[in-house]
Amino acid sequence: MQLTNQQLQTDMALLQLGLRLKADGYRFTCVTPATQQRNLDRTPAGPAHSMRDVFGWNRPFSADQVSPDELEQMRLAGILKYKGAQLCSTVRFSTLGEGLFLHSSYPTDSADAVFFGPDSYRFAQVIQAHLQRNFSQINHAVEIGSGTGIGAILIAAARRNAQVTAVDINNLALRYTAINAALAELSNVSVEYSDVLKGITGTFDLIVANPPYMLDAGERTYRHGGGTLGEGLSLRIVKESLPRLAPGGTLLLYTGVAIVEGQDPFYSAVKSMLDSSGWVWSYQELDPDVFGEELLEPGYQDVERIAAVTLSVTCHT
After folding, report:
1. What is each CA distance from 53 to 47, 49, 57, 256, in whole angstroms?
2. Which of 96, 122, 138, 259 sits between 20 and 30 A of 151, alpha carbons compared?
3. CATH for the stretch 118-315
4. Which residues contact 317 (CB under 8 A, 6 or more apart)?
5. Tens digit of pLDDT for each residue in 266-316?
């Protein structure tokens, strides 16, 4: 991915800002948008009192509330905007374990927003559990729809000899993935523009994905899954990933599914793809009820709940 000089300067400033936050022991657990808003509503006019307020809760702040060098890095990164008479950051930083992840500010309204939240933590748990119980060699792995790059970074950190590729159709996501990999001090993560795996050659020992799975009227990249009820991209990833698995390779897909009258249409579609002797697979509902507020949105009138699920598919050796 080719960057302009301005983008290179911006990304270096974001990296330096992240390194400063890490050195200062910054910690923030990212919550759902609904919980984020409820916290902000408690003191709607309250200014920031800490870097967690600035980069976690995304509260407005005055220039004298941050150090001069941090303010300069924010200016170089182009992430300052005015909110009334105060300043506000257009990015956030959240932590998972010892890792620090740069992502978009709240609310994530823009078409190229890079999202991080509770789904990211659940996705991380799925990957970590797989890596802890499977010790087969990983030479080449890929994260489809990398976003912040959390999947690629976890794999690269756990398997230092693996070459890990992070792909996305969102160039801002690729830039943030590269910054987050640098924050993790990893040299075995590369970023590539790709629509699922188009233009990416070879087979993979591990493919991971946490695709968007909602119906979104604005069709924002990080959120809109397409299909009847948001399942379109998840099904496409399964279909296009299976032929790209090396012998013994595994696809790990974390996604959300709309349950209608007790039935899971995504599971039914996946089952028809995988009921052959070529695959060893499992399907698990991790959380029976996520993003319940979405049931009030157009298109969800027949949906009783949205469940978080994981699909694991391994190619026979």
Report:
1. 8, 6, 5, 30
2. 259
3. 3.40.50.150
4. 247, 248
5. 999 999 999 877 799 999 999 999 999 999 999 999 999 999 999 999 998
Distance of CA 217 to the CA centre of its chain: 20
- 45 secondary structure, DSSP code: T
- Nearest alpha-carbon partner for 307 in 259, 238, 267: 259
Three-state SS for 90?
coil
Q: Please enumerate in sequence order all residues whose Cβ is within 8 A of that of 281, keeping only pairs 6 or more positions apart, or say none.
A: 274, 311, 312, 313, 314
Q: How far apart are CA 203 and CA 178, in angstroms?
A: 22
Q: What is the three-class DSSP state of 113?
A: coil
Partners of residue 308 on adjacent β-strands? 256, 287
> How many CB atoms are located within 10 Å of the residue 212 CB?
24
pTM value is 0.95
Residue extents of the structural domains in the chain? 5-104, 118-315
